[in-house]
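Table S2 (continued). Query chain:
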Amino acid sequence: MLGACMDSRWPSSLEVLVEVPKGARIRRDDAGRVELISPLRCPFNYGSVPGTCAPDGEREDVVLLGPPLPRGARVVAPLHAQVRFVDAGVPDAKWVCGDAPLTPADVSRIERFFRFYAAVKRVARLARATVGSVGSGGAGARSGPTRFEGLVYR
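Corresponding output:
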């Protein structure tokens, strides 16, 4: 699927709400509560498209290339690609935006990040299932495959 052409119905640009600045390790929810502390720094600004709802029930995700922006910043940026990602069996695509066209280095960084991210999510789910199976309860999380499926370009 890597390198496939985009759907002609994609917009040319998106409004992006920055949730995780480039270089940050902490992801917070809308109320400011810590949602995730990553062992790795985010290699790009990560955010969402306000007013949207993705199949996972959250706003549509966005990878925003360029310099670090503060959490809460809102920008309109040209759309270049989409990361095809499946999280626990649910499609969880991420738009890729930025002021400059994608470079081979950008593509490589995005692909490496999401392959690693998928592997970490699979390990975390297994750990939760193992811990959840001891005693009462259970994992309680969605089940299904988690994988990076490639990039689709504009």
